[in-house]
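Quick one: structure for this chain?
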Amino acid sequence: MSLGPSAIRGRYYDGKTADVREVTVVATPGEVILRDAADAALVARWPIVELGVLGDSEHEAVPLLVRRNGEARLAIDDAEQRRALGATVPEITRLGARRPSTAGRLLQFSVGLAAAVALFWVALQSGSDLLAPLVPNRLQARMGEGVYAQLVGQRPLCQGEKGLTALNRFAGQVADAGGYDQAIKVRVVKGGPINAFTLPGGIVILYSALIDRAADGNELGGVIAHEIGHAVHYHPIKGLVRQFGTEQILKAITGGYAEISTLGSGGTLLLALRNGRAFEREADATGVSLLEKLGLRADGMSRFFEELLKIDPHDPAAVAGIWSDHPPTAERVAATRRPPTGAPDFTDAEWQAIRTMCR
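Got it. Here's what it folds into:
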């Protein structure tokens, strides 16, 4: 049975002494009247317009009713009686607000955290697009060399001078066509996997296994043009900026105990430099476009993707679906297919020098 205002009881503290008085509480249209519970003697008359509530039911077991600019306090222990008084005096309704359930508080916290992370991530994505081109070239080059040392380490490089000259000539030509204002540096690592990637500062890494797999210079040219596409759009530096931001999110969630350092380990670097589907599609389209702009053969990219499908017909990217960071290979073949027109990406002599540069 709900209690009326006349039955409300509380503990009154005058704010001057340590005494506690048991009181009854009655609300009238203009004031709240407190009387001694034992002899009904008047204890206080608080105008409703001067009432306030200290705390709330979410954080305190018993929110306190106070008279503004005064030291006195009133504690009503019974939650139902607090709600009854709050219903009678709308100005102090929150005195009787129900305490949120544990599940509700967890849900509220989870939704708030998810919203904060999502907002931070969107800002991070947009911010990296704006900030990446503004990072000084010298700093980008230094970062690229640091990442190179972490990822490649002491693995031997192919040193054939004529082959390296041909690769750097071609890569520089494509980068110039894309308006990239840094020098491109192509390095060929002996062995596998069949892979290539681009680092900040215009460093393009090719594995000799990829060169061995290419059927001709135009296929290799398509791969390099794709990597130049990453450089032109500053994808490597954007990846590092976003990884740094992700690290801050994880530190905020874990209270600073996330053991992630942007330049701390090879695994973290690979995560940072891994391009998402949007980056890969952008690099594909840009690479093909730049080759066509230069009047060079642009059909090699799609033919190399077809070679990858021959190696693994199941296509890990297609199998992984939305979880893959690369578009399905068949999709990339279709998107980059071009007619076999234009000048060769490399002369016969250059292609021969590239093929033998690791021997």
